[in-house]
Amino acid sequence: MRRVLRSFVHAWEGLRYVWSTQPNFRVECAVAALALALSLWLGVGTATVLLLILMVLALELVNSAIEALVDLVTGELHPLAKTAKDAAAAAVLLASLIALIIGLWLFAPPLIAKISAYGKIS
After folding, report:
1. CA–CA gap between residue 13 and residue 17 (Å, rounded)
2. Is residue 78 helix, strand or coil?
3. Smallest Cα–Cα separation from 93: which of 49, 60, 51?
4. What DSSP string runs through 51-66?
5. Which domains does the chain have, with CATH numbers?
6. C-alpha distances in angstroms, 29 versus 1, 25, 32, 94?
7. pLDDT, tens only, 40-88
8. 13 C-beta neighbours (distance < 10 Å), count
9. Closest CA to 67 of 81, 55, 53, 50
10. From CA 21, how far away is CA 70, in angstroms rounded?
11. DSSP state, 22?
């Protein structure tokens, strides 16, 4: 049980480190909060939105881990180090694009309906 608790402590430390050192992670968390609030307001696919949010944030954590490891191993910018960092960043970008496309697909119809309903009130 102690080992499991220690694992949670280490995971929390990793999350705190990424939060405090990676501005992109904080931006992604802010966008995630907005997307979650929008899904609740529109009443659509909250579970799907949450899953997409967690996918993007998890990949950002992996990206940060890869960047830290590459920085530890290489003192200077080696072409393969750049490739590793770029590929990890590309994974986050791809996941973000997938989340955006699915988000637009989920949010557009009910958002248009709500905007149209507000327009009819006047």
Report:
1. 6
2. coil
3. 60
4. HHHHHHHHHHHHHHHH
5. 23-121 (1.10.287.3610)
6. 31, 6, 5, 17
7. 999 998 999 999 999 999 999 999 999 999 999 987 788 999 999 999 9
8. 10
9. 81
10. 16
11. -
Number of H-type helices and E-type strands within the chain: 4, 0
Q: For this structure, is 60 an active site residue?
A: yes
- Residue of 13, 28, 60, 76 marked active site: 60
Compute the distance between CA of residue 94 and CA of residue 122 in angstroms, rounded to an integer.
41
Residue 51, CB-side half-sphere exposure with 13 Å CA sphere: 7
Contacts of 89 (CB under 8 A, 6+ apart): 63
CA-to-CA separations, 72 to 62, 77, 105, 108, in angstroms, rounded: 15, 11, 41, 44
Burial of 37 (0-12, 13-18, 19+ CB in 10 A): exposed
Return the structure tokens found at 86: 């770029």
Coil vs helix vs strand at 39: helix
Over 60: is that where the pLDDT of 7 sits?
Answer: yes
Residue type, 78: H
